[in-house]
Amino acid sequence: MTPSDVKATLSFSDGSPSMELPILKGTIGPDVVDIRKLYGQTGKFTYDPGFLSTASCDSSITYIDGDKGELLYRGYPIEQLAEHCDFLDVCYLLLHGELPNQQQQKDFDRLVSVHTMVNEQMQFFLRGFRRDAHPMAIMTGLVGGMSAFYHDSTDVHNPKHREISAIRLIAKMPTLVSMAYKYTIGQPYIYPKNDLSYSANFMRMMFGTPCEEYEPNDVLVRAMDRIFILHADHEQNASTSTVRLCGSSGTNPFAAIAAGVACLWGPAHGGANEAALNMLEEIQRNGGAEKIGDFIKQVKDKNSNVKLMGFGHRVYKNYDPRAKLMRETCHEVLGALGLENDPLFKLAMTLEKIALEDDYFVARKLYPNVDFYSGIVQRAIGIPVSLFTAIFALARTVGWIAQLNEMIGDPEYKIGRPRQLYSGSPRRDVKPLGGRS
Protein backbone atom coordinates (compact mmCIF):
# COMPACT_ATOMS: atom_id res chain seq x y z
CA MET A 1 0.00 0.00 0.00
CA THR A 2 1.09 3.55 -0.75
CA PRO A 3 0.30 6.69 1.26
CA SER A 4 -1.91 9.08 -0.67
CA ASP A 5 -1.26 12.80 -0.98
CA VAL A 6 -4.89 13.28 0.00
CA LYS A 7 -5.82 13.11 3.69
CA ALA A 8 -9.15 12.91 5.49
CA THR A 9 -10.15 15.18 8.36
CA LEU A 10 -12.48 13.90 11.06
CA SER A 11 -14.28 16.68 12.93
CA PHE A 12 -16.76 16.59 15.82
CA SER A 13 -19.74 18.84 16.45
CA ASP A 14 -19.14 18.88 20.23
CA GLY A 15 -15.97 20.92 19.95
CA SER A 16 -13.55 18.02 20.37
CA PRO A 17 -10.30 18.47 18.42
CA SER A 18 -10.46 17.32 14.82
CA MET A 19 -8.16 14.56 13.61
CA GLU A 20 -6.30 14.12 10.37
CA LEU A 21 -6.48 10.56 8.97
CA PRO A 22 -4.04 9.21 6.37
CA ILE A 23 -5.43 7.67 3.19
CA LEU A 24 -3.71 4.61 1.71
CA LYS A 25 -3.79 3.56 -1.94
CA GLY A 26 -3.72 0.02 -3.29
CA THR A 27 -2.78 -1.11 -6.80
CA ILE A 28 -6.42 -0.99 -7.92
CA GLY A 29 -9.70 -0.60 -6.09
CA PRO A 30 -10.95 1.84 -3.45
CA ASP A 31 -8.54 3.80 -1.26
CA VAL A 32 -8.78 3.20 2.49
CA VAL A 33 -8.86 5.62 5.41
CA ASP A 34 -6.25 4.57 7.99
CA ILE A 35 -8.00 4.64 11.38
CA ARG A 36 -5.37 2.73 13.40
CA LYS A 37 -4.72 5.74 15.66
CA LEU A 38 -8.38 6.72 16.00
CA TYR A 39 -9.01 5.27 19.45
CA GLY A 40 -5.70 6.46 20.86
CA GLN A 41 -6.34 10.04 19.78
CA THR A 42 -10.12 10.32 20.20
CA GLY A 43 -11.19 7.50 22.54
CA LYS A 44 -13.71 6.44 19.89
CA PHE A 45 -14.14 3.32 17.74
CA THR A 46 -15.77 2.96 14.32
CA TYR A 47 -19.04 1.02 14.01
CA ASP A 48 -19.31 -1.29 11.00
CA PRO A 49 -21.43 -4.45 11.51
CA GLY A 50 -20.31 -7.16 9.12
CA PHE A 51 -17.17 -5.11 8.30
CA LEU A 52 -18.78 -4.09 5.00
CA SER A 53 -16.83 -0.81 4.84
CA THR A 54 -13.67 -1.94 6.65
CA ALA A 55 -10.45 -3.22 5.11
CA SER A 56 -9.17 -5.73 7.67
CA CYS A 57 -5.83 -6.37 5.99
CA ASP A 58 -3.41 -5.50 3.20
CA SER A 59 -3.48 -8.36 0.66
CA SER A 60 -1.99 -9.05 -2.77
CA ILE A 61 -3.79 -12.34 -3.46
CA THR A 62 -7.28 -11.73 -4.84
CA TYR A 63 -9.13 -8.69 -6.16
CA ILE A 64 -12.86 -8.37 -6.85
CA ASP A 65 -14.67 -5.54 -8.59
CA GLY A 66 -18.31 -6.34 -8.00
CA ASP A 67 -19.63 -3.55 -10.25
CA LYS A 68 -17.57 -4.73 -13.23
CA GLY A 69 -18.01 -8.44 -12.46
CA GLU A 70 -14.24 -8.90 -12.27
CA LEU A 71 -12.25 -11.48 -10.27
CA LEU A 72 -8.44 -11.57 -10.33
CA TYR A 73 -6.09 -14.10 -8.75
CA ARG A 74 -2.69 -12.39 -8.33
CA GLY A 75 -3.73 -10.06 -11.16
CA TYR A 76 -4.83 -12.76 -13.60
CA PRO A 77 -8.51 -12.73 -14.72
CA ILE A 78 -10.36 -15.83 -13.56
CA GLU A 79 -11.58 -16.42 -17.13
CA GLN A 80 -8.02 -16.83 -18.44
CA LEU A 81 -6.96 -19.08 -15.56
CA ALA A 82 -9.98 -21.33 -16.00
CA GLU A 83 -9.28 -21.65 -19.72
CA HIS A 84 -5.49 -22.07 -19.74
CA CYS A 85 -4.54 -23.56 -16.36
CA ASP A 86 -5.42 -26.52 -14.17
CA PHE A 87 -6.16 -26.36 -10.46
CA LEU A 88 -2.62 -27.13 -9.29
CA ASP A 89 -1.30 -24.31 -11.50
CA VAL A 90 -3.72 -22.01 -9.67
CA CYS A 91 -2.62 -23.42 -6.31
CA TYR A 92 0.99 -22.62 -7.18
CA LEU A 93 -0.04 -19.13 -8.25
CA LEU A 94 -1.93 -18.39 -5.05
CA LEU A 95 0.87 -19.73 -2.85
CA HIS A 96 3.87 -18.28 -4.70
CA GLY A 97 2.52 -15.21 -6.51
CA GLU A 98 3.39 -16.34 -10.05
CA LEU A 99 2.29 -19.11 -12.38
CA PRO A 100 4.74 -22.03 -12.57
CA ASN A 101 7.07 -22.59 -15.48
CA GLN A 102 7.30 -26.08 -16.99
CA GLN A 103 9.79 -27.44 -14.43
CA GLN A 104 8.07 -25.79 -11.48
CA GLN A 105 4.75 -27.23 -12.61
CA LYS A 106 6.22 -30.73 -12.85
CA ASP A 107 7.90 -30.50 -9.43
CA PHE A 108 4.83 -29.02 -7.71
CA ASP A 109 2.43 -31.57 -9.21
CA ARG A 110 4.73 -34.38 -8.07
CA LEU A 111 5.10 -32.89 -4.58
CA VAL A 112 1.33 -32.74 -4.13
CA SER A 113 0.71 -36.22 -5.55
CA VAL A 114 3.16 -37.94 -3.17
CA HIS A 115 1.38 -36.45 -0.14
CA THR A 116 -2.18 -37.52 -0.98
CA MET A 117 -2.32 -40.47 1.42
CA VAL A 118 -3.46 -39.87 5.00
CA ASN A 119 -2.41 -41.62 8.16
CA GLU A 120 -4.16 -44.99 8.35
CA GLN A 121 -5.47 -44.16 11.82
CA MET A 122 -7.73 -41.51 10.27
CA GLN A 123 -9.96 -44.43 9.35
CA PHE A 124 -10.55 -45.14 13.03
CA PHE A 125 -11.26 -41.46 13.63
CA LEU A 126 -13.96 -41.66 10.95
CA ARG A 127 -15.62 -44.62 12.61
CA GLY A 128 -16.48 -42.45 15.59
CA PHE A 129 -19.01 -40.56 13.46
CA ARG A 130 -22.53 -41.72 12.75
CA ARG A 131 -23.03 -42.98 9.20
CA ASP A 132 -25.66 -40.31 8.60
CA ALA A 133 -23.44 -37.44 9.82
CA HIS A 134 -23.25 -34.42 7.52
CA PRO A 135 -19.98 -34.49 5.53
CA MET A 136 -19.11 -31.02 6.79
CA ALA A 137 -19.37 -32.18 10.39
CA ILE A 138 -16.95 -34.98 9.52
CA MET A 139 -14.60 -32.64 7.62
CA THR A 140 -14.43 -30.16 10.50
CA GLY A 141 -13.25 -32.98 12.75
CA LEU A 142 -10.88 -34.56 10.25
CA VAL A 143 -9.11 -31.35 9.25
CA GLY A 144 -8.70 -30.20 12.84
CA GLY A 145 -7.57 -33.71 13.77
CA MET A 146 -4.69 -33.56 11.28
CA SER A 147 -2.71 -31.54 13.82
CA ALA A 148 -2.72 -34.66 16.02
CA PHE A 149 -1.04 -36.68 13.25
CA TYR A 150 1.46 -34.20 11.80
CA HIS A 151 3.34 -32.69 14.74
CA ASP A 152 6.28 -31.72 12.54
CA SER A 153 4.39 -28.93 10.77
CA THR A 154 2.24 -27.20 13.39
CA ASP A 155 4.36 -24.12 14.15
CA VAL A 156 2.66 -21.39 12.15
CA HIS A 157 5.60 -19.03 12.74
CA ASN A 158 8.04 -21.41 11.08
CA PRO A 159 8.08 -20.81 7.29
CA LYS A 160 9.13 -24.41 6.61
CA HIS A 161 6.27 -25.75 8.73
CA ARG A 162 3.82 -23.53 6.88
CA GLU A 163 5.14 -24.79 3.54
CA ILE A 164 4.87 -28.46 4.60
CA SER A 165 1.38 -28.04 6.08
CA ALA A 166 0.23 -26.21 2.91
CA ILE A 167 1.22 -29.12 0.68
CA ARG A 168 -0.27 -31.65 3.09
CA LEU A 169 -3.60 -29.85 3.27
CA ILE A 170 -3.91 -29.33 -0.49
CA ALA A 171 -2.88 -32.95 -1.18
CA LYS A 172 -4.96 -34.65 1.51
CA MET A 173 -8.24 -32.71 1.29
CA PRO A 174 -9.51 -34.75 -1.73
CA THR A 175 -8.64 -37.94 0.14
CA LEU A 176 -10.49 -36.80 3.26
CA VAL A 177 -13.57 -35.63 1.34
CA SER A 178 -13.79 -38.92 -0.56
CA MET A 179 -13.28 -40.88 2.67
CA ALA A 180 -16.10 -38.94 4.32
CA TYR A 181 -18.35 -39.75 1.34
CA LYS A 182 -17.43 -43.43 1.22
CA TYR A 183 -17.98 -43.74 4.97
CA THR A 184 -21.51 -42.30 4.78
CA ILE A 185 -22.53 -44.73 2.01
CA GLY A 186 -20.81 -47.76 3.52
CA GLN A 187 -18.30 -48.37 0.74
CA PRO A 188 -14.58 -49.13 1.23
CA TYR A 189 -12.13 -46.24 0.91
CA ILE A 190 -10.20 -45.97 -2.33
CA TYR A 191 -6.54 -45.08 -1.97
CA PRO A 192 -5.14 -42.24 -4.12
CA LYS A 193 -3.24 -43.03 -7.30
CA ASN A 194 -0.21 -40.88 -8.05
CA ASP A 195 -0.27 -41.17 -11.83
CA LEU A 196 -3.63 -39.38 -12.13
CA SER A 197 -4.22 -35.65 -12.18
CA TYR A 198 -5.49 -33.94 -9.03
CA SER A 199 -9.12 -33.85 -10.17
CA ALA A 200 -9.09 -37.28 -11.84
CA ASN A 201 -7.63 -38.76 -8.68
CA PHE A 202 -10.39 -37.18 -6.61
CA MET A 203 -13.12 -38.55 -8.87
CA ARG A 204 -11.58 -42.03 -8.80
CA MET A 205 -11.51 -41.97 -4.99
CA MET A 206 -15.13 -40.78 -4.99
CA PHE A 207 -16.65 -43.17 -7.51
CA GLY A 208 -14.23 -46.07 -7.82
CA THR A 209 -14.69 -49.42 -6.09
CA PRO A 210 -12.37 -52.40 -5.57
CA CYS A 211 -14.57 -54.37 -7.98
CA GLU A 212 -13.40 -52.66 -11.15
CA GLU A 213 -11.03 -49.92 -12.24
CA TYR A 214 -12.57 -46.46 -12.53
CA GLU A 215 -12.07 -44.79 -15.91
CA PRO A 216 -12.11 -40.97 -15.58
CA ASN A 217 -14.26 -39.09 -18.09
CA ASP A 218 -12.21 -36.17 -19.45
CA VAL A 219 -15.22 -33.83 -19.68
CA LEU A 220 -16.23 -34.51 -16.09
CA VAL A 221 -12.66 -34.28 -14.80
CA ARG A 222 -12.23 -30.90 -16.49
CA ALA A 223 -15.56 -29.75 -15.04
CA MET A 224 -14.45 -30.72 -11.54
CA ASP A 225 -11.10 -29.00 -12.06
CA ARG A 226 -12.90 -25.84 -13.14
CA ILE A 227 -15.11 -25.95 -10.03
CA PHE A 228 -11.94 -26.12 -7.94
CA ILE A 229 -10.37 -23.17 -9.78
CA LEU A 230 -13.45 -20.95 -9.52
CA HIS A 231 -13.74 -21.54 -5.77
CA ALA A 232 -10.02 -21.36 -4.88
CA ASP A 233 -10.19 -17.90 -3.30
CA HIS A 234 -12.59 -14.98 -3.06
CA GLU A 235 -10.97 -12.14 -1.16
CA GLN A 236 -11.87 -11.45 2.50
CA ASN A 237 -15.14 -13.40 2.76
CA ALA A 238 -16.50 -14.87 6.01
CA SER A 239 -14.49 -18.11 6.02
CA THR A 240 -11.24 -16.46 4.87
CA SER A 241 -11.60 -13.80 7.55
CA THR A 242 -12.26 -16.59 10.04
CA VAL A 243 -9.04 -18.35 9.04
CA ARG A 244 -7.09 -15.11 9.37
CA LEU A 245 -8.64 -14.26 12.75
CA CYS A 246 -8.11 -17.79 14.06
CA GLY A 247 -4.55 -17.89 12.73
CA SER A 248 -3.74 -14.50 14.27
CA SER A 249 -3.61 -16.17 17.69
CA GLY A 250 -0.69 -18.33 16.50
CA THR A 251 -2.70 -21.53 16.34
CA ASN A 252 -1.48 -24.31 14.03
CA PRO A 253 -2.43 -24.22 10.33
CA PHE A 254 -4.68 -27.30 10.56
CA ALA A 255 -6.77 -25.72 13.33
CA ALA A 256 -7.04 -22.44 11.39
CA ILE A 257 -8.20 -24.24 8.24
CA ALA A 258 -10.67 -26.32 10.30
CA ALA A 259 -12.15 -23.01 11.51
CA GLY A 260 -12.59 -22.00 7.88
CA VAL A 261 -14.32 -25.30 7.12
CA ALA A 262 -16.72 -24.74 10.03
CA CYS A 263 -17.55 -21.21 8.85
CA LEU A 264 -18.03 -22.34 5.26
CA TRP A 265 -20.71 -24.80 6.41
CA GLY A 266 -23.17 -21.94 6.87
CA PRO A 267 -26.00 -21.87 4.27
CA ALA A 268 -25.36 -18.18 3.63
CA HIS A 269 -21.78 -18.99 2.59
CA GLY A 270 -20.56 -22.36 1.32
CA GLY A 271 -23.97 -23.98 1.58
CA ALA A 272 -25.41 -21.75 -1.14
CA ASN A 273 -25.12 -24.31 -3.96
CA GLU A 274 -26.69 -26.94 -1.71
CA ALA A 275 -29.56 -24.52 -1.04
CA ALA A 276 -29.96 -23.89 -4.80
CA LEU A 277 -30.32 -27.60 -5.57
CA ASN A 278 -32.72 -28.09 -2.67
CA MET A 279 -34.82 -25.25 -4.10
CA LEU A 280 -34.93 -26.89 -7.54
CA GLU A 281 -35.95 -30.23 -6.04
CA GLU A 282 -38.70 -28.51 -4.03
CA ILE A 283 -40.05 -26.84 -7.20
CA GLN A 284 -39.90 -30.19 -8.97
CA ARG A 285 -41.92 -31.86 -6.20
CA ASN A 286 -44.54 -29.10 -6.49
CA GLY A 287 -45.18 -29.58 -10.19
CA GLY A 288 -41.90 -28.78 -11.92
CA ALA A 289 -41.57 -26.51 -14.94
CA GLU A 290 -45.34 -26.35 -15.47
CA LYS A 291 -45.80 -24.73 -12.05
CA ILE A 292 -42.75 -22.51 -12.13
CA GLY A 293 -44.93 -19.44 -12.69
CA ASP A 294 -46.49 -19.97 -9.26
CA PHE A 295 -43.03 -20.16 -7.71
CA ILE A 296 -41.92 -16.94 -9.43
CA LYS A 297 -45.03 -15.15 -8.13
CA GLN A 298 -44.13 -16.22 -4.59
CA VAL A 299 -40.56 -14.99 -5.02
CA LYS A 300 -41.85 -11.56 -6.11
CA ASP A 301 -44.34 -11.41 -3.23
CA LYS A 302 -42.78 -9.38 -0.39
CA ASN A 303 -45.05 -11.08 2.12
CA SER A 304 -43.86 -14.53 1.06
CA ASN A 305 -40.92 -16.30 2.70
CA VAL A 306 -39.94 -17.94 -0.60
CA LYS A 307 -36.43 -17.05 -1.76
CA LEU A 308 -34.69 -17.50 -5.10
CA MET A 309 -31.51 -19.39 -4.22
CA GLY A 310 -28.47 -19.37 -6.52
CA PHE A 311 -29.29 -15.98 -8.03
CA GLY A 312 -27.67 -12.64 -7.28
CA HIS A 313 -24.56 -12.13 -5.17
CA ARG A 314 -23.65 -9.93 -2.22
CA VAL A 315 -20.46 -8.75 -3.94
CA TYR A 316 -21.21 -8.87 -7.68
CA LYS A 317 -23.61 -6.18 -8.87
CA ASN A 318 -23.03 -7.42 -12.40
CA TYR A 319 -22.91 -10.96 -13.76
CA ASP A 320 -20.70 -13.18 -11.58
CA PRO A 321 -17.65 -13.88 -13.83
CA ARG A 322 -17.44 -17.39 -12.39
CA ALA A 323 -21.04 -18.03 -13.38
CA LYS A 324 -20.28 -17.39 -17.07
CA LEU A 325 -17.57 -20.06 -16.99
CA MET A 326 -19.65 -22.49 -14.96
CA ARG A 327 -22.60 -22.06 -17.33
CA GLU A 328 -20.43 -23.26 -20.25
CA THR A 329 -19.22 -26.18 -18.17
CA CYS A 330 -22.77 -27.00 -17.14
CA HIS A 331 -23.91 -27.40 -20.75
CA GLU A 332 -20.77 -29.41 -21.64
CA VAL A 333 -21.41 -31.85 -18.79
CA LEU A 334 -25.13 -32.23 -19.48
CA GLY A 335 -24.31 -32.88 -23.15
CA ALA A 336 -21.60 -35.43 -22.38
CA LEU A 337 -23.91 -37.34 -20.04
CA GLY A 338 -27.01 -37.04 -22.23
CA LEU A 339 -28.93 -35.25 -19.47
CA GLU A 340 -30.27 -32.30 -21.43
CA ASN A 341 -33.81 -33.66 -21.02
CA ASP A 342 -33.56 -34.62 -17.36
CA PRO A 343 -36.61 -32.99 -15.70
CA LEU A 344 -34.64 -31.27 -12.96
CA PHE A 345 -32.08 -29.88 -15.39
CA LYS A 346 -34.79 -28.69 -17.79
CA LEU A 347 -36.38 -26.96 -14.81
CA ALA A 348 -33.06 -25.30 -13.99
CA MET A 349 -32.65 -24.02 -17.54
CA THR A 350 -36.24 -22.70 -17.50
CA LEU A 351 -35.54 -20.84 -14.27
CA GLU A 352 -32.30 -19.49 -15.72
CA LYS A 353 -34.16 -18.14 -18.79
CA ILE A 354 -36.75 -16.40 -16.63
CA ALA A 355 -34.08 -14.78 -14.44
CA LEU A 356 -32.18 -13.47 -17.46
CA GLU A 357 -35.27 -12.07 -19.22
CA ASP A 358 -37.82 -11.10 -16.56
CA ASP A 359 -37.70 -7.35 -15.84
CA TYR A 360 -38.15 -7.97 -12.10
CA PHE A 361 -34.95 -10.01 -11.84
CA VAL A 362 -32.98 -8.02 -14.42
CA ALA A 363 -33.72 -4.72 -12.63
CA ARG A 364 -32.50 -6.22 -9.34
CA LYS A 365 -29.49 -7.82 -11.03
CA LEU A 366 -30.51 -11.26 -9.78
CA TYR A 367 -28.42 -13.12 -12.33
CA PRO A 368 -27.65 -16.83 -11.90
CA ASN A 369 -24.48 -17.09 -9.82
CA VAL A 370 -21.71 -19.69 -9.67
CA ASP A 371 -23.54 -21.68 -6.97
CA PHE A 372 -26.53 -22.24 -9.27
CA TYR A 373 -24.46 -23.80 -12.05
CA SER A 374 -21.91 -25.62 -9.90
CA GLY A 375 -24.72 -27.32 -8.02
CA ILE A 376 -26.25 -28.54 -11.29
CA VAL A 377 -22.86 -29.79 -12.54
CA GLN A 378 -22.07 -31.64 -9.34
CA ARG A 379 -25.45 -33.33 -9.26
CA ALA A 380 -25.00 -34.39 -12.89
CA ILE A 381 -21.59 -35.87 -12.07
CA GLY A 382 -23.18 -37.90 -9.29
CA ILE A 383 -22.11 -35.97 -6.22
CA PRO A 384 -24.81 -35.90 -3.52
CA VAL A 385 -26.12 -32.51 -2.48
CA SER A 386 -24.88 -32.98 1.10
CA LEU A 387 -21.29 -33.15 -0.19
CA PHE A 388 -21.34 -29.88 -2.17
CA THR A 389 -20.00 -27.73 0.66
CA ALA A 390 -17.23 -30.22 1.44
CA ILE A 391 -16.04 -29.94 -2.17
CA PHE A 392 -16.18 -26.15 -1.83
CA ALA A 393 -13.95 -26.49 1.27
CA LEU A 394 -11.55 -28.70 -0.70
CA ALA A 395 -11.21 -26.02 -3.38
CA ARG A 396 -11.00 -23.07 -0.96
CA THR A 397 -8.26 -24.67 1.19
CA VAL A 398 -5.45 -23.29 -0.96
CA GLY A 399 -6.91 -19.78 -0.75
CA TRP A 400 -7.19 -20.03 3.02
CA ILE A 401 -3.57 -21.20 3.26
CA ALA A 402 -2.32 -18.39 1.00
CA GLN A 403 -4.22 -15.82 3.07
CA LEU A 404 -2.96 -17.31 6.35
CA ASN A 405 0.65 -17.34 5.14
CA GLU A 406 0.37 -13.77 3.91
CA MET A 407 -0.97 -12.61 7.28
CA ILE A 408 1.73 -14.41 9.29
CA GLY A 409 4.42 -12.93 7.02
CA ASP A 410 3.07 -9.40 7.44
CA PRO A 411 5.23 -7.49 9.98
CA GLU A 412 2.20 -5.40 10.94
CA TYR A 413 -0.07 -8.33 11.79
CA LYS A 414 -1.51 -8.54 15.31
CA ILE A 415 -3.92 -10.89 17.03
CA GLY A 416 -7.44 -9.96 15.94
CA ARG A 417 -9.48 -7.97 18.44
CA PRO A 418 -12.69 -6.44 17.04
CA ARG A 419 -14.34 -3.75 19.15
CA GLN A 420 -17.98 -3.26 20.10
CA LEU A 421 -20.62 -0.67 20.88
CA TYR A 422 -21.82 -1.75 24.32
CA SER A 423 -25.55 -1.27 24.89
CA GLY A 424 -26.08 -3.36 28.04
CA SER A 425 -26.71 -2.27 31.61
CA PRO A 426 -24.36 0.27 33.16
CA ARG A 427 -22.39 -0.70 36.28
CA ARG A 428 -24.58 -1.93 39.13
CA ASP A 429 -24.13 -3.71 42.46
CA VAL A 430 -25.27 -7.22 43.37
CA LYS A 431 -28.20 -7.20 45.81
CA PRO A 432 -28.68 -9.86 48.51
CA LEU A 433 -30.90 -12.73 47.34
CA GLY A 434 -33.89 -11.53 49.38
CA GLY A 435 -33.72 -8.06 47.88
CA ARG A 436 -33.87 -9.11 44.24
CA SER A 437 -37.15 -8.50 42.38
Can you describe this structure?
By secondary structure, this protein is mainly alpha-helical. The protein contains 18 helices and six strands. The strands form two sheets. A three-stranded antiparallel beta sheet has the order 1-2-3. It has a three-stranded antiparallel beta sheet with strand order 4-5-6. Helix 6 runs antiparallel to helix 11 and helix 9 runs antiparallel to helix 17. The protein starts with a strand and ends in a 29-residue tail after the last helix. The mean pLDDT is 92.
Task: List key phrases describing it.
437 residues; mainly alpha; three-stranded antiparallel beta sheet; 49% helix; globular
Secondary structure layout:
Layout: E1 2-10, E2 19-25, E3 32-33, H1 38-42, E4 62-65, E5 70-73, E6 76-77, H2 78-84, H3 87-96, H4 102-113, H5 122-126, H6 135-145, H7 159-185, H8 198-207, H9 218-230, H10 238-247, H11 253-264, H12 272-285, H13 292-300, H14 321-337, H15 343-357, H16 359-363, H17 370-381, H18 388-408
Antiparallel strand pairs: 1-2, 2-3, 4-5, 5-6
Percent of residues in beta strands: 5-15%
Mean pLDDT over all positions: 92
By helix and strand content, what is the structural category?
A: mainly alpha
Overall geometry: globular
List low-confidence stretches.
none
- For the largest beta sheet, what order do the strands appear in spatially? 1-2-3
- What is the rounded Rg? 24 Å
Terminal residue distance: 57 Å
**How many H/I helices?**
18
Order of helices and strands: EEEHEEEHHHHHHHHHHHHHHHHH
The largest pleated sheet is described as: 3 strands, antiparallel
Number of strands: 6
The amount of helix comes to 40-55%
